[in-house]
Amino acid sequence: MSTATPDLHSAPAGSGVNYLNASYGIRSWLLTTDHKRIGLLYLVVITFNFFVGGTAAVLMRLNLIEPTGALVEPSTYNKLFSIHGIMMVFFFLVPSIPATLGNFLIPLMIGARDVAFPKLNLLSWYVFVAGSLCALVAVLSGGVDTGWTFYTPYSSTYSHGLVVLAALGVFIAGFSSILTGLNFIVTIHKMRAPGMTWFRLPLFIWAMYATSLIFVLGTPVIAITMFLLGLERIFHVGIFDPALGGDPLLFQHLFWFYSHPAVYIMILPGMGVVSELITAFSRKKIFGYTFVAFSSMGIAVISFIVWGHHMFVTGQSIYAGLVFSALSFLVAIPSAIKVFNWTATLYKGSISYQAPMLYALGFIGLFTMGGLTGLFLASLATDVHLNGTYFIVAHFHYIMVGGAVMAYLGGIHFWWPKISGRLYPDLWARFAALVVFIGFNLTFFPQFVLGYLGMPRRYAVYPAEFQVLNVMSSAGASILGIGYLIPLVYLIWSMRYGPPAGPNPWGAKGLEWTTPSPPPTENFEEMPVVTEDAYNYPTAKAVRHG
Amino acid sequence: MAAAMIPLQPPSASTISPGVDQLYYLLTGITLFFSVLIFSIIFYFMVKYRRRSDDELPEETHTSMFLELAWTIIPSLICVVLFVWASDLYVRNSRPPAASTEIFVIGKQWMWHIQHPEGPREIDELHVPVGAPVKVTMTSQDVIHDFYIPAFRVKKDVLPGRYTSLWFQPTQTGTFHLFCAQYCGANHSQMIGWVYVMTPADYAAWLATGEKTESMVQEGGALYTRLGCATCHVEEGAGRAPSLAGIYGKPEKLAGGETRVVDENLMRQAILDPNSIPLPNYAPIMPTYKGQIDEEQVLELIAYVKSLGPQERNDQ
């Protein structure tokens, strides 16, 4: 990706000065306060993190081709899944859509020149890079084998290596989330263009707002948890290890109090993206705007009180289990409402199938399956059998990869012409979307079966009867990996060779499409005034009535 | 032929399994129904409303309150039914029958140490008779483990510093996997073993073979004497400590006014951290046995105290 920056400077013919060619040189990027450039800085870093985490996943799947482990020692395998989880969750998925597309689009979508605190925005990128470096050094030096969940007392007392450095990385990156969330909340409250009322906001903005609330309210808890973990590991203060007088389950309560809402940090922005894509490619107003908007807020609130469903088999009391089970069923409802409304939006639409739409439809399908299989785990009696098995792994990959990553890729493809000013080859993009969809399902569907059969997760070696399903999964992973590499190639290619996109290649609604591509540094030549609802696509009826 | 190679269902070998499987298949049915429903509608719309020309304008549609309510209320009702069904089953599956025989498990990196009350000890193997309920009481010597027998559909974390328990009643003889299902370090995936479900006759024969060992109660009694517990724990009111006879399962009033039922966890705490349980009529003079006896010996002491009949205790 290091070649990406210079390429961006060649402005498409006839588009004049824009945020990419307004100034040159590495300093102009590293000291920028332009939200669009900061979005791209995040894009470079998280793309790197994604491929680090992805490489670890490929090595894991290779190892699992043989029941006895085809590639590495069990202790190395443990480090691989720790690298994969830590990099993907904290350093890719959590910042993915908010820090890249959110940074780039929020001011453009609400009609502002920048976010509320541009310097804070740049600071949060540096903080994120510092956190990423800590984690990278820790995991790549082979120092972490705790899994991304850092469960005590294994992490605090028994594990060897650089657990504290990895935890420090998570701790530092958390501040980046908090600063970004704060910035977005203030921006959305204070910087909307005249006429951009709350209920005219694109649903992507509602999703970003809900996500930012979780950033600000949830992230301090993971920071505290990592801090306490460090205290116990370095100074042997008895907090979590019973041998020191601590409580091992306290860590899990604190960890999941953040990490369950964090699941919604990952999926809510994806839902926002999909609302934009479905409307644009069916040329329709979203069905049930208020229901979709409020379901985002509902998910954000309820997500804070369901953490105990990660702990049904820890010996937590039956009554706590019952309460957390009921609340977990409750959080399924707003998700169902969204899926039904997206589907209904297609009704009588004018639907086209460019690459972003394929990702959006893939998202709906995979998210639906991920959500429904969540019911197996909210149900106490079945959770006992499935908890800690590959069923869990399959379930949350359907949500986080089938959901969040599909939406992220869909969003990148949708707004790429706006970001780069160039078009990418649509045929290749559609092909890649198909490869990703097939590879994903082949990788993760067999894991549902493996989980029901009883194969525990995080196993470097396993009984031979599980081999066929594991080989299927590994085959799928190789296809999925290729599916992720193809866009990397043609998107970079398009920055130099793609035809100019023009301001609105999709014919989409939304303020970001009213300004040139790439947008000028100040976003709009003339500040917009909003006079209509979001997704106000022309209809046959409106035209007939003139 | 490939289907024959791919197992789709784990063996079902306990009284708990059929209920869990029933719910699992109900959930699978619901998942299939809604997935197929949504996929079909999307495919239908995709074909029917595909863009035919670039300047095509779609018909106007309006948000329908009826539809919004329908797809809020119907999933809610399904969730209520699932919640009640799953919770009822869970509560029933959580309560061991009173007549259960007890087995004790100590997890440590990376093996399962299993102890039968009659005396035999096993590593990574568990022999149980078919048709009888078994309650497993577990603790860990180091990190968190998880005791998982897929064929029985039972699983519970094994925690350091406290006891957790689960129960099962095997319904068929055979050999079944025992897994550690909570990541516990380098050899986590090798912390596995086998459960042998035997006919009662075979099980009795198995108990009788092997080296002659003392029962847990006998071992605990010897330990009780050797540690000098009996110098203070004499008849109620006569010594420096309360009588332990018949104390198991009874509510005990603490100095703070709190009442706690004497169970395995409280007894463990009383042995390893006695001053954390102040009693109203006794001075906090008991020494801690933390570091002096291991988890196995704590279990033996508890087994011995549980065996002390109520007739020896003077209930005022």
Overall mean confidence score, pLDDT of chain A: 93
- What is the CATH third-level topology name of the largest domain in chain B? Immunoglobulin-like
Helical residues, percent of chain B: 25-40%
Which strand-content bin applies to the residues of chain B?
15-25%
What sort of overall outline of chain A do the alpha carbons produce when their principal axes are compared? Answer: globular
Q: Which CATH architecture of the largest domain in chain B?
A: Sandwich
Question: Low-confidence segments of chain A, ≥5 residues, pLDDT <50?
Answer: 1-14
Q: Kindly report the CATH topology of chain A.
A: Cytochrome C Oxidase, Chain A
Percent of residues in beta strands of chain A: under 5%
Secondary structure tally: strands of chain A = 0
Strand order of the largest sheet of chain B: 3-2-1-5-8
Q: Using the alpha-carbon principal axes, give the shape of chain B.
A: elongated
- Order of H and E elements of chain B: HHHEEEEEEEEEEHHEEHH
Q: What is the CA-based Rg of chain B, rounded?
A: 27 Å
N-to-C span of chain A:
50 Å
Number of helices of chain B: 7
Q: What structural class should be given to the helix and strand makeup of chain B?
A: alpha+beta
Estimate nothing, just give the exact number of structural domains of chain B: 2
CATH architecture of chain A: Up-down Bundle
Identify the CATH class of the largest domain in chain B: Mainly Beta
What does this structure look like?
- The complex is a heterodimer of chains A (546) and B (316).
- With 546 residues, chain A is an all-alpha fold.
- Chain A contains 18 helices and no strands.
- Chain A has helices spanning 4-7, 26-30, 35-63, 74-93, 96-110, 118-140, 154-158, 163-190, 203-235, 248-282, 289-302, 318-346, 355-378, 380-386, 390-420, 426-453, 467-497, 540-544.
- The relative contact order of chain A is 0.12.
- Mean pLDDT of chain A is 93; it is low at 1-14.
- Chain B folds into two domains: 11-31 and 68-211, Sandwich (Immunoglobulin-like), CATH 2.60.40.420; 216-312, Orthogonal Bundle (Cytochrome Bc1 Complex, Chain D, domain 2).
- Chain B has seven helices and twelve strands.
- A five-stranded mixed beta sheet of chain B has the order 3-2-1-5-8, with helices on one face. In chain B, strands 4-10-9-6-7 form a five-stranded mixed beta sheet. Chain B has a two-stranded antiparallel ribbon with strand order 11-12.
- In chain B, helix 2 (17-48) runs antiparallel to helix 3 (65-94) and helix 5 (216-226) packs across helix 7 (295-307).
- The longest helix of chain B is centred in the first third of the chain and has 32 residues, at 17-48.
- Chain B starts with a helix and ends in a 9-residue tail after the last helix.
- Mean pLDDT of chain B is 90; it is low at 311-316.
- Classes of the chains: A mainly alpha (546), B alpha+beta (316).
- At the A-B interface, helix 4, helix 7, helix 10, helix 12 and helix 13 of A face helix 2, helix 3, strand 7 and strand 9 of B.
